[in-house]
Design a protein that fits this description.
Blueprint lengths: L1 E4 L13 H11 L6 E6 L2 E6 L3 H13 L1 H7 L2 E3 L4 E3 L4 E3 L3 E4 L17 E7 L5 H14 L4 E6 L6 E9 L2 E9 L6 E4 L5 E4 L9
Parallel strand pairs: 8-9
Antiparallel strand pairs: 1-3, 2-3, 4-7, 5-6, 7-8, 9-10, 10-11, 12-13
Length: about 210
């Protein structure tokens, strides 16, 4: 993982430029970096390598878990979209997100309007532990995203945690269940009203 911090502004007689504005403008000008994910977190452009294949298997599992309720409700889901998160001004690319009213925004742009997002999911990787456990939950909550689902295999036992009730101070509620062969059941309330069977979560094979 590498980072790029906000550039220092030069002294001039013109209007002052906010370094955060400069960094955000730079972020949107960056071309995709093959094999990497690029995000803007805590005032830094963060470049992370793409995760291992197990990571993709978990995302596929999430797509299947939410597939029926999405079809019934006219929602859409998938990986790979940029979310502009106010008021932290972070720009995150969640591993999985679920949106309502997909026909009301363009899907040919990098950014998905955060007001359409019902749920985001992150799958923890070695380089994303702090971001997924600490930075993103706060940013997602401040942005008003109703649910944040975290899959973490770097704890014992591996867990799936659902965060809900977003506020300015973070998510007020969380529920975790163990994952894997002895996994538990995780209830995802309205508007989903489904139960995730954590025992079916694919676990690393090596």
């Amino acid at each position: 993982m590498s980072v790029m911090q906000a550039p220092r502004t030069k002294h001039s007689t013109g209007p002052s430029v906010d370094p955060a504005d400069e960094l955000e403008a730079l972020f949107w000008k960056l071309d995709p970096i093959p094999g990497h994910r690029v995000e803007l977190l805590e005032g830094q452009i963060v470049v992370s390598p793409l995760a291992v294949f197990w990571h993709a298997r978990v995302v596929t599992w999430l797509l299947r878990c939410f597939g029926d309720v999405c079809e019934a409700s006219g929602w859409e889901q998938g990986p790979g979209a940029d979310l502009m998160l106010q008021p932290t001004r972070d720009i995150a690319e969640p591993d999985h997100l679920l949106v309502r009213d997909p026909d009301k925004f363009s899907d040919t742009e990098r950014e998905v309007p955060v007001e359409h997002v019902l749920l985001v999911s992150e799958v923890v990787s070695p380089s994303s532990k702090r971001a997924d456990r600490e930075v993103k939950p706060l940013s997602y909550a401040k942005a008003g995203i109703p649910f944040y689902l975290l899959v973490d295999r770097f704890v014992e036992p591996a867990t799936i945690t659902l965060f809900s009730e977003p506020s300015e101070g973070g998510y007020a509620k969380s529920e975790a269940v163990p994952a894997g062969p002895d996994g538990g059941k995780l209830w995802v309330p309205d508007p989903f009203s489904i139960t995730l069977d954590a025992a079916t979560l694919p676990m690393p094979r090596g």
